[in-house]
Amino acid sequence: MLTKRKSRSIAAVLALSGTLTISGLHKFYLGQPLWGVLYVLLSWTPIPKVASAIEGVWYLAQDEAAFDRHFNLGKSAVKNSPQTGNQVEAIAKAVRELDTLRQDGLISEYEFEQKRRQMLDQIS
Questions:
Q1: In this predicted structure, what is the pLDDT of residue 29?
Q2: 18, 35, 48, 121: which one has the fewest Cβ atoms less than 10 Å from its Cβ?
């Protein structure tokens, strides 16, 4: 679960449910078990319930990119857009042209490999 992508809506639901039930479940979900334990230990006070409510609203107020930066190591959900497809096609065409130059002897194998790697790095 530590490497699985976290959902902003699930985190918000868990945080807001912590105002009525056990506080801190959202912290365990988001990979912050020490904070989760602290919320559970302080559950006899109103502090974790108020903090859970504030955090639930905060999660909902954030856009997906901000949530991903905080809780998904900056990795957003993979979405195939037409722009990405066009970029891949353009790079594939450039690599084919580069391979033609290599086959014609206009560039060395080393130069081909360096340029190919640079182009492929642009995709990710």
A1: 92
A2: 121
